[in-house]
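Troubleshooting entry. The earlier prediction with zinc ion gave an output that would not parse, so I re-checked the input for stray whitespace and re-submitted. Clean input:
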Amino acid sequence: MSQLILGIETSCDETAAAVVAGGRRIRSNIIFSQIKLHQPFGGVVPELASRNHIKNINPIIQEALDQAGVTWEDLAGMAVTYGPGLVGALLVGLAVAKALAFARRLPLVGVNHLEGHIYSNYLAHPHLKPPFVSLVVSGGHTDLVHVLGHGQYCLLGQTRDDAAGEAFDKVARVLGLGYPGGPAIDAAAREGNPRAIDFPRAILPDAPADFSFSGVKTAVLNYHNQHRQRGQDINVAHVAASFQAAVVEVLVERTLAAAVKCEVEQVAVCGGVAANTALRELFRIRGAEAGLEILFPPPILCTDNAAMIAAAGYYRLQAGCLAPLDLNAVPNLSLDSR
Ligand code: KG4
Ligand code: ZN
């Protein structure tokens, strides 16, 4: 059997298709980002995202096949994200994937977007092997997961309110840094002092693997508003660096504590926020102190892509988990809900 899987991802504002061999080797990874389209609105506009996916999905799939140098006949199957995400956006990828699977007589696999993010580290690090702990930290999620095997997950903790990426995006908007906020705060923070302002770190003593970022977000908004009311300027770089430090320290601390508790040797960090420079640096330092191997995908595989969906799909196909042709979008799908 061919080992080639075509992956399709349209859960938010990236239209993406990729071909992956054997679940681990990227043959092509095409990503069309809609950032420019949504930028004037300061965030993703769901209706615009869906329409744009419809416009671009077919040429992007063709490009993924062409760049990989494969034809439909070479494929072993197709994998498509069916949740979580924006329902209208998910439905575009699903409709296209189901139609193509039917027309080309290819097996279809439905992939959980969060599971996809976890697989981005399998693509980047051939020696990554379960069991390990994974921190999935993106615009919509902050999940701490014990990965026990392929398709076997134990959710250790998650955010009680905002996702880390969501907090980055909201704080960036208030600071006038634009959308998407994560990379903008990352860049602004390089010129600032992370100890300049003592923003709160949420402590949840009853749930040490859970997170909360609404408190730090509100603290930044209050800091900004109080200064504005007094007619005082704020130092944006110091605010960005101090906010980023508050988020990053909590993420690193809780993840490493969970890894020690689960007695794993590897920690795999993934999702858009995993591209953050300060997060990578602090994980590197604290991970070495704790004797843990910390793995990150390269930045291009941190944010949404279809290679990670194809990788997860390969292992699901091997396990015989085929999707029916009436597979529907599940906007609030969680990692342990299947
Ligand atoms: O994984 P992703 O592409 O989409 C979701 O599944 O949500 O993550 C997007 C999120 C956004 O909130 C964006 O601001 C954040 O990842 N992000 C970053 C960085 N690059 C992207 N956050 C902090 N620092 C970065 N360098
Ligand atoms: Zn994502």
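This one parsed fine. The beta strands are 4-9, 14-21, 25-33, 77-83, 108-112, 132-137, 142-149, 152-158, 266-270, 293-295.
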